[in-house]
């Protein structure tokens, strides 16, 4: 059903164009869906750009296969970007009315993609305009990597807008209110529908996180950074759950804003043969958590009668929880290996707690572990509410 819907999107509305990419005509603010090939690059052209537009942010998104967008037919690190969510900023010259970009799939043919070009004026801040870390001179991209526990995002600071033909404002001329240091950054998060890994769903929802008004209407604001803060973000990974992130840079002097290129992740691979997004439906996961659930129900209703069983359960959770964090943070073990080590560590922790009670019979240290488990559960439930966004 997901693929059927995607092809429907491809053939209707804004995406009603020939599927194979060749020469692609774009209009400002209008999305286009198309198929990209590795062997034959596509040429994206934007014409009739208004004189008040000072820069155009062109961005392309694919579901899980990498694509390259570049200023030249022969791409290089300094004139292109490669990934599933990538964009380029075209700073317009005097009298320029046409922009051209070149698109190519990486390592595959017939890659379903969607792209859009967004205009900004001289008073709008420039996303990634003060880039000192990445290859592009102006880099509006969010760079994302993840593991089983956390998602890490970094991006380049923005610069102030300026008129066509002028030199860009200095990024390091001072920290006054007339410099880029007055800019602030709003970080937004948007969850895709649960248990839906389809390309059609991805395309339709990605459109909600590209332009400033739509981002603020649909996204959840996670935090606001000042120019003194590091442009580095950490979020909890939710393997199998699609999430879109974006950053809006705001200029308080002119009350203008601009959006970076949104980036998405499922915190897992859709294409890997093993350890992919369907890992969490595998037999080992079902066995582990089903047994844990039955033990939890037993302790919940009969734990007051079976004191040592309750201690075993809480000792298991306490030890397994901390070791799981350490393993995922410090190692690159496979999912099954991580699950097995977590279970083994939990059993050892459970036996140690029961052994402590059997040997010393002290209630307070044992109840301290139980209280920590309860506190973790309550705080997790509390911060899962909208309170956790602040």
TrEMBL record:
**TM7S3/TM198-like domain mapped to chain residues:** 292-388
Which InterPro entries does the UniProt record give?
TM7S3/TM198-like_dom (IPR025256), TM7SF3 (IPR042502)
User: What are the alphabetically sorted keywords of the record?
Assistant: Membrane, Signal, Transmembrane, Transmembrane helix
**What is a biological process (GO) this protein takes part in?**
negative regulation of programmed cell death
Name where it's found.
Membrane
Ubl conjugation as a keyword of this entry, yes or no, is no
Query: What's the protein called, per UniProt?
Result: TM7S3/TM198-like domain-containing protein
What organism is listed for this UniProt entry? Micrurus corallinus (Brazilian coral snake)
